[in-house]
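# step 3/5: fold
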Amino acid sequence: MRRSGFTTIEMVICVILIGIIASIGFPKIRNALDKSNVRSSRDALGTEAAIARSAAIQRGCRGVLHFTSGATATVWVTTACPAKVDTIAGVEKLSTRFNVTLTATRDSVQYDPRGLSMDNAVTVVRITGAAGNKDSVMINTIGKVVRQ
C-alpha cells in the first residue's frame, strides 16, 4: 500500500530550514524598523517645532515647544497669551509611539510673535532607538529646524 504525504524527517528538515532563514532575517528586520522609528520621531519633532512657530505667529503671543528627555520622551506645544496658556495638539509621547529615547540640550524652545526664538541658543535633541540607531534635530538660534 502506497501512502501520500510527508514523512516526519521531511517535516523536521523543513522546520529547521525555516528556523535558520528566520534567524538570519529577524535582526535585519528589527534594525530596519528601529531606523524607521527614529526617522519618524525626528520628523514628528520637526513638525512640533513648526507648529510652535506657526502658533506663535498666528496667535500673536509666545509659543513654546517643550521636551522631556529620557525613556519617557514627550513633546508638546503651548502658547502663552495674556489671557491664558493653551496646549496645542496634545502631548506627543514619542517614547511610547516610536520606542525611542530623547536627550535634549534644553527643556524648551520659546518663539516670539514673529516666529523667532527668544532664547538665542542652539537646541539639539538627540534621538536613540531601541536597537541603537541614532539621529538628531537641531533648532538654531532664530528658532528654525536646520538639520533633520
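# step 4/5: annotate
The chain has two helices and eight strands.
# step 5/5: archive (pending)
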